[in-house]
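Handout, page 2. Input:
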Amino acid sequence: MFWFSSYIYVPVLSPYVEHLGASYFMVGMVLGIYGLMQILFRIPIGIGSDYLNRRRPFIYLGLIASGVSCFLFMWGAQPGWALAARAVSGIAASAWVVYSVMFAGYFPKEEAGKAMGMLQFTTVIAQLTSMMISGYMVEHWGWNAPFLIGGIVAIAALILALRLPEQKQEKRQNAIQIKELAGVVKEPLLVKVSLLSVLAHCVLFITMFGYTPNQALNIGASKESLGWLTLAFMIPHAIATLYGSRLFGGLLGDRGKLMLGFAGSALFTLLIPSMPTLAALCLTQVGNGFMQGLIFPLLLSKSVSEIDPFKRATAMGFYQAVYAIGMSAGPFVAGWMSSVYGLTGGFWLGGIAAVLATILSWVWMKDTKQKQLKET
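Output:
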């Protein structure tokens, strides 16, 4: 319900802002501020949750912000209001730090990958169900319909969350210090996977959560048919998040799986501008959805794999704040390139980011494995 309320309008967001009279540059600002707010809020939320040893208040915060965001979109039909609403939705998404850590806490440490795969799957299902209906709703009931439904779902989720039991870590002999939490960011593996996630989110927020719907409309697709684009991306994405490790983990290892995911994503992103029909464009989304589904659960599990439990919200806050740079800078720079070179320029930027991530995966994950062998 949390992600449903946040993503129900995403497929129509960039066309909606363009409909309000905004340029591609302004569209990029609206898309990019979502990530910028997460850069600012995710680390403080993670540190605050660990320091207070509480999770529930931050979940309330996320749901309230998600609902407020939806209603702000309805409040005014100008690009400035859309910018403000998307900023608040970025605050909402920042609370995912606490969701992730709280859910992982129900599993043994060695099952962190399984837990993150399950959590990513629920995220994808929420995104799929919400994004599938947004185009239909706009076509039949107008631009405000997804915002209204999203706000109602956020309110319902908040009511349910009031019964959520608090999850606390065992008390330590000495109170945890802020400087101790700040030292988490020096963990080498955390820094590397965070930077890889920056590039992964650049690609995601340039393509499916960015300008791919605009590309579909440009080649003659209707707003209602954008649901097929979402379906083509999300179903393979969901399959990969659940079964990617079983299919490729033993054969390729972590480094191989990341390289396959990033290289495949680069290929399918670069193909987007040359697709002449909606059906052909959907095929690129099938490939992109699956390849990106290999990447995200693996990076998410590795971000906390070497972190003590009482520091994990801080580590997750750092990881999610850093990758939010990609969510912000990717569509922002792509918006500028699209204003100058057309939408093709933005998709080329996404492809280049994925190629760079492929190279870094080869270098960094190799170093990580060697370190583990030495320690063994």
